[in-house]
What we know:
By secondary structure, this protein is α+β, with helices and mostly antiparallel strands. It is 44% helix and 25% strand. Strands 1-2-3-4 form a four-stranded mixed sheet, with helices on one face.
Amino acid sequence: MEIKITFEGMPHSQALEKVATEKILKIKELISDPEWKTPRFVELWLKANNQHKHHLAKLHLKTPDFDLNSESEDTDMYLAVDNTVNKMITLVRKEKNKIKDLRKNGSSEKRDFSKDKYNL
């Protein structure tokens, strides 16, 4: 899994990068089931706003199964990262459940078409 962290409007911080990487690895553990494909790409943008004191964190997760985005804005960059990762974990869980339901029910276009009320 490739992790990219970009700092905008602020100097690079090893401590912030370490915390962000640890939190992102929680997402990797969530997707590391044998039946799931591992994430190919995770990108975290950290943007500091010096005028308004609202820092923005955006997270993009790209996998073979889905493509998800989350973001959070807060006065503290660490809280923004934490909230962004928590939102992403929620989104990943929802996507996993959707995919598991589809695999369990065996839904396909053919099967859905045969249930069409206009089909004679």
